[in-house]
Amino acid sequence: TLRMSYQLSTSPLSQLFADASTKDKFGKQIREVIMQYCYRTGLLPDGADDKTIDASVASLNELDEAASSWSSLQVCSLAEVAQPQKPLLGCIIFYPTYSTWVGGRLRLGLVQCDSSQQSNQQLLYSLLRSVICRALDDEDLQRIELLHPASDAAVYGPLMQLGFEDLTQTEEWHFARLDRDGLQNLANRPAKSGIAVRAGAESDCAEVMKMIHGLANFEKLQAQVRINEDQLRRDIFGERKFAQLFIAECSNSGEILGYALAFDEFWPSGRGVCLEDVFVQPAHRGKGVCSALFSAVARDSLYNRRCHFMSLCYLAWNSAALDVYRHYGFVDITGSDSSKSNGAHFLRLSRDQFRSALGQAL
User: Is domain 6-169+348-360 classified as CATH 3.40.50.150?
Assistant: First the structure.
């Protein structure tokens, strides 16, 4: 049990940045936490200069920008009651995302605890209990997930003890990321004539659901698709709007050629976009449809959502997909293009394990 000198709180980032005084205080504390996380996980080398830090860690202005336009971005933090101005003892930044297999999920964008504290694991478990309880109370959330290096034993080990599954090990899921310059280049790619990309509509859901099954079948994971057309419609076009849907169609006939689905993502460098799905109908592959979808998502994320990067996941055996992603400028951050010891592993806790995880985190 934590001593009473520690205070646990959870708030939307927008609330922490509501006025100048709290913005300055919490902004600096959160940025310090992000820097600590980057040093601990190898995203920043020891002794990094200011230029390297600024390229890897979101600025106060970028955090403020995310706070003002991303209402579902939440911060769970631990601070010393007696010295609230000191650096935070721990922090989890989290937000809802979406899976076209199971529906709503909760993504932990960053998990950081002060490793110098003797009660480090207790601090971590207190943070995780708070976040898991919130997910348990929200029936729309079917999973909790995060990207985290397996080499970081101080966090990875406790997560495994709570029941998280390392999908990079069990199913070979890898993540790739495109930086801001690459995102800009992707946004500027011209579309081939005859292909138009528009925002998805409720009337597209029946056709999109067929393509979701087609994608899952290609990935040999068809049995994992649990949502139906009604849930897809509710989740994308209902009150919560978990993700953005993009439809590629023939400019002349209106025939649907493919789709993409994306949602906002947080990383130490700030706000980005995660491309959850990209699928092109088999008869229209190799004709520029995939490129048009990527470019449309990049433009929307840059100019409408002010994102700084794009990420996606893929199965390691799908080398053809990785070749396409590398062509666009993506870098594998799990293992192929980075140090495997510091590579980001995809970790997941399913809803049926939430309660047992809470029992473990005592």
Answer: no
The predicted pLDDT at position 1 comes to 47
DSSP E strands, 13-83 = 74-80
Burial class (CB in 10 A: 0-12, 13-18, 19+), 188: exposed
For the segment 198-207, what is each residue's pLDDT rounded down to a tens digit?
Answer: 999 999 999 9
CA distance 350 to 286: 36
pTM higher than 0.90 for the full model?
yes
CB atoms within 10 A of CB 301: 26
User: What mean pLDDT do residues 323-346 have?
Assistant: 82
Instruction: Give Cα 320 to chain centroid, integer Å.
Output: 23
CATH architecture, domain defined by 178-332: 3-Layer(aba) Sandwich (3.40)
pLDDT over threshold 50, residue 4? no
Closest CA to 186 of 305, 279, 287, 299: 299
The catalytic residue positions are 325
Residues facing 348 on adjacent strands: 145, 165
Residue ranges per domain, the chain? 6-169+348-360, 178-332
Q: Which of 200, 312, 213 is nearest to 267 (CA)?
A: 312
Q: Which residue has the tokens 């202005």?
A: 61
CA angle 197, 321, 193 (to 5 degrees): 30
Residue 93 and residue 26 in contact, taking contact as beta carbons nearer than 8 Å: no
CA distances 187 to 243, 251, 310, 328, Å, are 19, 20, 11, 11
Q: Would you call 111 helix, strand, or coil by DSSP?
A: strand
pLDDT of residue 81 exceeding 80: no
Average pLDDT rounded to a whole number, residues 237-260 = 97
The answer to whether residue 118 scores a pLDDT higher than 60 is: no
327-330 own/partner pairs: CB under 8 Å, 24+ apart: 328/178, 328/182, 328/186, 328/294, 329/178, 329/179, 329/181, 329/182, 329/185, 329/186, 330/176, 330/177, 330/178, 330/182
User: How wide is the angle at C-alpha 219 spanned by C-alphas 215 and 225, nearest 5°?
Assistant: 60
